[in-house]
Amino acid sequence: MENAEKYAKVDRDILAAMEKPGRLYLAGLAVAAALTVIGGILWAHQIRTGLGVAGYTHPVNWAIYITNFVFWVGIAHSGTLISAVLFLFRARYRTSFNRAAEAMTVFALMVAGMFPLIHLGRSWVFYYLIPYPTQRQLWVNFRSPLIWDVFAVGTYFTVSVVFFYVGMLPDFAIARRCKEGIRKKIYTVLSLGWKGTDREWRHYGMLYLFLAAFATPLVASVHSVVSWDFAMSIVPGWHTTLFAPYFVAGAIFSGTAMVITLVIPLRKAMHLHDYITDDHFESIAKILLFTSLIVSYAYIVEFGMASYGENIFEMEAFRYRALGEFRYLTWAMIFCNSLVPLTLFARRLRRNTAYLLVVSLLVNVGMWLERFVIIVTSLAHDFDPYVWGTYRPTYVEVGISLGSFGLFFMLYLLFVKNLPVLSITEIKEHL
């Protein structure tokens, strides 16, 4: 087949995913939209009624909302890893996952950014988190890691959106050429007059390389800052220098699992087997396995340091985590995050997409449980037995959490039908 025919086939195959949606797509979009609406209604109910409708009881005042914030920020992490870091290392299988991963990053950060506002209760005073010029002798507390979150997550979101958009510029020009009507007008605006000249490609390559290099340190910085929300305190189970690398590895682990969860159904539904092969899934499964080993090592170190140390509060915190009332969640977390991924040492299983999908779903569940266990068990069982407590989420918290998943998948489904799901130009480079 001549190169021109190969390039035309790539255009047709990938842009075909943007054609009229089928019933299954519409059903999925309807379910996601319904969950989003339910979550929005429950949030409105919480704003109107107050945080009393949440399950907060002393001393557990950080619970499911902060769990969701940390979980979604972690999910967002892998987008930059797959897109930027693998670009710098010239990993060819990156082209099968980078567009889905970048979209996932942007949507996950949008969802994550909602939870500090939900957790505030009085969401309209969110501006106290922003470093606005001092007035009325008020100023934000720059010594608080919560303020660092605003800078870190805000910077990461801005860079991720720019990186996502810049990467799609040549593909917008192709979509402009192939589509008709209102869509053609929209892609004309989005492509910014791209003509594909040598000069444009030269500047584009330099800009993309710069953004990839700029975004890479953010992979480490964002979740390190999120981990310091906990590590900067003196609460048993939180106050450890291990948290930054532990959280970063966990974020890459959970984000990689979510990419696999999203791309396997995408490949089947959009008939993209020629561009997302079993070899590509095997490569990304190795990242999942490698990060699982790092996370498992961190679990061992945490329990080891508590066991061999002389801090009775740390020992009690980890004993409670393993044997207390949340023990089933702890052991489920270890099963999903440490034991199940070990099966990926078998090459046959790494290449089995059905099995890989099941593993990725279990890892997503395990990583959410990990965030919940870290946050709730340490607060419920800190220094003074007199104030020990417990926590049970209410229907409002559960509904808002499900609504966040609905919002994420709704945005992702809209992306699938309106933007190229694979990087057309990068795939052509490898033909």
Task: Please provide a written account of the structure.
- There is one protein chain.
- With 431 residues, the chain is mainly alpha-helical.
- It contains 15 helices and no strands.
- It has helices at 3-16, 23-49, 64-88, 98-120, 145-178, 181-190, 198-231, 243-270, 278-308, 312-323, 327-339, 347-350, 353-380, 395-418, 424-429.
- α10 crosses α11 (327-339).
- The longest helix is centred in the middle third of the chain and has 34 residues, at 145-178.
Task: Write a compact overview of the structure shown.
By secondary structure, the protein is mainly alpha-helical. The protein contains 15 helices and no strands. The protein has helices at 3-16, 23-49, 64-88, 98-120, 145-178, 181-190, 198-231, 243-270, 278-308, 312-323, 327-339, 347-350, 353-380, 395-418, 424-429.
Q: What is the topological layout?
A:
Layout: H1 3-16, H2 23-49, H3 64-88, H4 98-120, H5 145-178, H6 181-190, H7 198-231, H8 243-270, H9 278-308, H10 312-323, H11 327-339, H12 347-350, H13 353-380, H14 395-418, H15 424-429
Helix pairs in contact: 2-14, 3-4, 3-7, 3-8, 3-13, 4-5, 4-14, 5-6, 5-7, 7-8, 8-9, 8-13, 9-10, 10-11, 11-13
Structural class of the secondary structure composition? mainly alpha
Number of continuous helical runs: 15
Task: Look at the structure and give the mean pLDDT.
Answer: 88
Radius of gyration: 23 Å
Coarse shape: globular
Proportion of residues in extended strands = under 5%
Order of helices and strands: HHHHHHHHHHHHHHH
Work out the helicity level: over 70%
Q: How many strands?
A: 0
Distance between the termini: 11 Å
Uncertain regions: pLDDT < 50 for 5+ in a row?
none
Largest sheet report:
none
